[in-house]
Amino acid sequence: MKLTINRLLLLVLGLLYILISLLRRSFYSEGLVDWKTIEILATLIVINTGMMLSGGIDFISYKLLGTTKSMRQLFFLSVLLTSFLAMVLTNDVTLLILIPLTVSIGKFTKKNVENIIIIQAIAANVGSMLTPFGNPQNIIIFRTEHLTFFHFILIMLPPYIFSMIILLLFVFLFRNDNLIARSTPPVPNFFLFLSNLILLFSAIIFMLLDLNGLYFILLIAVSLLILLFVEPEGLVRIDYALIAVFILIFLVINSLKTLVEVPVINNPVYLYLYSLLLSQFLSNVPTTVLFGKVSNWIPLAYGVDIGGNGTIIASLANLIALRNISGKNFLKFNKYSFLFLAITAAFGLFILHIYS
């Protein structure tokens, strides 16, 4: 069995949880896992698998990318497409769909597309920050703080717009070349794509209405049935390990909080800086779980979303993207990602002063 990133995380988190359970002398207790959030995440993972296997997103993306005549145009379109899809499909799923397409374009145009992959990783983190369902940490904050959809977007709009402007300016740092060759466009299964698209919008509506977890289980069941009859091999393509990783994140972090008291940080600037810095070493989803419900959710959301850029482990999306680039360009990713983090982190601090 191939040791993927998610399986490695599962192994590490599993061992950590066993160790913490031994120290606690308790394997499980009520309230360690936010099962409603897990149901939402599992629903998105299952439905997005169906959309990915349908080839529908590949087809649409390929048609859009096929209109480009130069590398710079491809950069711009990749940034816009990645950030847009990440708002709805989550950042990691977006990269799982688009990066193979980018690699394919590089193959048939005989161009090195690793710089585009670096920018796509940043774009996925930027796009996902805007919506409450763009990434796991936003789902957790949205549910924990009982926020409204439009209020969340209104608060996240300033750092999103600024980050997008900076990212589009980053495109000019890369060399521009002509593109000439094109590969054969993928042939999608429109029934599989459209049915899961309807399920995806249903999941978003259910989440915004804060419906019972049984509704999400129903959506999972319908999506699995569609896969069973239309694409049965897709049942083994679902990232069950990723679902287990999210469960273990709750178990490990919340169990750890019963052993070590996490200080309450009421100062918004300190909360922002701590969450941003912790994301670089702990990753942004565990950092969000660690802080839990806070007195002011805005600095936490800014910290973990802006903090998704930076180190390779700051966001799962970074790990997904960097599997496809060489060691030389890994260093280049660090250079651009940390530069982007420094600029956007400073802006986030400025916006916090305005809100406070």
Could you please describe the fold and organization of this structure?
Helix 4 runs parallel beside helix 6, helix 12 crosses helix 13 and helix 12 packs antiparallel against helix 16. It contains 16 helices and no strands. The chain has 356 residues and is mostly helical. It is globular and about 60 Å long. It has one domain.
List the helices and strands and how they pair.
Layout: H1 5-24, H2 35-54, H3 56-65, H4 71-89, H5 91-109, H6 114-128, H7 136-144, H8 149-170, H9 190-208, H10 213-230, H11 240-259, H12 268-282, H13 284-291, H14 297-306, H15 316-322, H16 327-355
Helix pairs in contact: 1-11, 2-9, 2-10, 2-11, 4-5, 4-6, 5-6, 5-15, 6-8, 6-15, 6-16, 7-13, 8-16, 9-10, 11-13, 12-13, 12-14, 12-16, 13-14, 14-16
Please give a handful of descriptors for the protein shown.
356 residues; 0% strand
Concise account of the structure shown:
The chain is mainly alpha-helical and about 350 residues long.
On the 0 to 100 scale, the average pLDDT is 87
Outline, from the CA principal axes? globular
Helix-strand topology string: HHHHHHHHHHHHHHHH
What does the radius of gyration come to? 20 Å
Q: Indicate the low-confidence ranges by residue numbers.
A: none
For the secondary structure, the number of strands is 0
Percent of residues in β-strands: under 5%
User: How many DSSP helices?
Assistant: 16
Largest sheet: none
Q: Based on helices, strands and strand pairing, what is the structural class?
A: mainly alpha
